[in-house]
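batch_manifest entry 22 of 60
target: PadR family transcriptional regulator
source organism: Luedemannella helvata
requested by: lab member K.T.
priority: normal
notes from requester: please return tokens only, no post-processing; we will run our own comparison against the previous entry in this batch. if the run fails, retry once and flag.
--- input ---
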Amino acid sequence: MSTTRLMILGLVRWLQPVHGYYVRRELESWNVEEWAAIAPGSIYHALRKLSQEGLLEEVGTEQVSARPARTSYRVTPAGEQEFQELLRRYWWDYKAPVDPFQVAFSFIWCMPPEEAAAALRHRAARLRAVSGGQAAMVESEFMRANKPVHVAWMFELSVARAELEADWCERMADRIEAGELRGDWEPVGFDERVEAGRIVREAASRSNEK
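--- output ---
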């Protein structure tokens, strides 16, 4: 919810006073459902919740013919403070993304090697298709004419991540097909796993301190 709060507060702050409809339309043009996991249907709920919390305030309603009334919002002083705190939290902190694929990959030995390799190549192809579409968006006249330059930069980051993961998937498929995936792996005992985990965490902690 924190990312949704930051996104909604930021857009209202930028466009205020603004109707929820325009917030939704702007977010859809940024493809936020793909890279920020913000579903369009959640936007109106978020606007109402932020209003109830005193972070947004309703500044008017507009009725156009038989359409539902549209409420305009703007950011309150409390909302500005919340926005600034969230903005700096996500700029300065790193939080590893949760990827279901990594969970599934943890149990790679439960699949036949040929299926695992095929799945990795399929994933690589899908990632390249996604990155191709995003790269085209970066170069589009619509992007240049209608969006701030930093929006194109965000798409470039998505392209870079997708291409990097696609390359990794293809390398792993190559290694599986070369017979590097052991089928006789056996888990170590509980005590050994605890000790191994401690060593890995300490090594990661030392690396982060450098």
